[in-house]
């Protein structure tokens, strides 16, 4: 099996007139205790031109009834989908993209908050981009703090900083939670095999790096907009290493195939680490060596991977 079949791609963009400025998407899994806080945070926004898309991913607590009660009494425009069975976050992500009727798509988790002017800041930052640059800058991303007021992760090298998700990770080594929107028409143009969303825990980073691979840029700002609650149980994206292994492996292979030629000499250590992690994660799956070597484009990475294959079980 060629693991490239799990990799999404981008088709030709189709213009569309959207009804709202933002589509705010909240994936829910057992969030009956926190979803009201998310709602209140959105009600308090100074910028009102948005819809709220909620996808309840087979919760086994009282999330469904809690959301129904919120929807019945809320001033917000709410589009609610209740998945009877758990599909995992990536499937919910694409469900919401299909439903989205806003220019910008913003994921907002079910246990977080945001500052009252978050959407206003996002909108103003995008509007300040020149018309020429808007064709390539398709996202705006800001910073996060925890519920105690502490900044999470690194700031960007400048304010604003025009780059892409792969570059800030591989070259700038920027770590930690960030939060931002992406143009909806870019996300709607993504094509994928059903195996990409039907096999559990695929990483969102695959999507952001795919957009970067196509040459699109992000405007990064050193403004705190999201309040990220740490040590919160019941996250929709939390799971064990063996369950996340496939998503991680597709992420690493995609990075090699998409970026190695352009970035190998700029950040060789980054790719060596990716190779180590790829080999380590492979022990959790039943794929054979050929499945990997036929999926990796670089002969040099193939060669190193074959060398490491016999000791993969001993790698952490």
Automatic annotation (TrEMBL):
Alphabetized SUPFAM superfamilies for the sequence: Nucleotide-diphospho-sugar transferases
UniProt domain Glycosyltransferase 2-like: residue ranges: 23-125
InterPro entries with a match to the protein in the record: Glyco_trans_2-like (IPR001173), Glycosyltransf_2 (IPR050834), Nucleotide-diphossugar_trans (IPR029044)
Protein name per Swiss-Prot or TrEMBL: Glycosyltransferase family 2 protein
């Amino acid at each position: 099996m060629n693991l490239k079949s799990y990799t999404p791609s981008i088709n030709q963009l189709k213009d569309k007139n959207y009804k709202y400025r933002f589509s705010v998407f909240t994936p829910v899994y057992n969030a009956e205790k926190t979803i009201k806080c998310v709602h209140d945070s959105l009600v308090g926004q100074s910028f009102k031109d948005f819809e709220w898309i909620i996808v309840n991913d087979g919760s086994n607590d009282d999330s469904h009834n809690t959301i129904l009660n919120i929807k019945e009494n809320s001033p917000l425009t709410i589009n609610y989908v209740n998945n009877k069975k758990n599909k995992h976050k990536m499937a919910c992500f694409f469900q919401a993209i299909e439903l989205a009727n806003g220019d910008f798509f913003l994921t907002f988790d079910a246990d977080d908050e945001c500052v009252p002017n978050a959407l206003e800041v996002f909108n103003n930052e995008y509007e300040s981009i020149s018309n020429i640059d808007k064709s390539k800058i398709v996202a705006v991303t800001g910073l996060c703090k925890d519920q105690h007021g502490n900044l999470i992760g690194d700031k960007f090298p400048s304010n604003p900083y025009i780059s892409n998700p792969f570059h800030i990770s591989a070259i700038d080594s920027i770590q930690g939670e960030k939060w931002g929107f992406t143009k909806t028409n870019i996300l709607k143009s993504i094509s994928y095999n059903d195996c990409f969303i039907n096999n559990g825990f695929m990483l969102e980073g695959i999507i952001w790096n795919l957009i970067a691979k196509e040459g699109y840029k992000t405007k990064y700002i050193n403004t705190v907009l999201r309040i990220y609650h740490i040590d919160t149980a019941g996250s929709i994206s939390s799971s064990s290493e063996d369950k996340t292994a496939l998503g991680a492996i597709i992420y690493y292979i995609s990075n090699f195939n998409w970026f190695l030629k352009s970035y190998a000499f700029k950040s060789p250590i980054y790719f060596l680490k990716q190779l180590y992690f790829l080999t380590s994660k492979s022990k959790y799956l039943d794929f054979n060596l050929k499945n990997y070597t036929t999926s990796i484009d670089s002969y040099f990475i193939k060669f190193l991977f074959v060398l490491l294959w016999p000791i993969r079980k001993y790698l952490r």
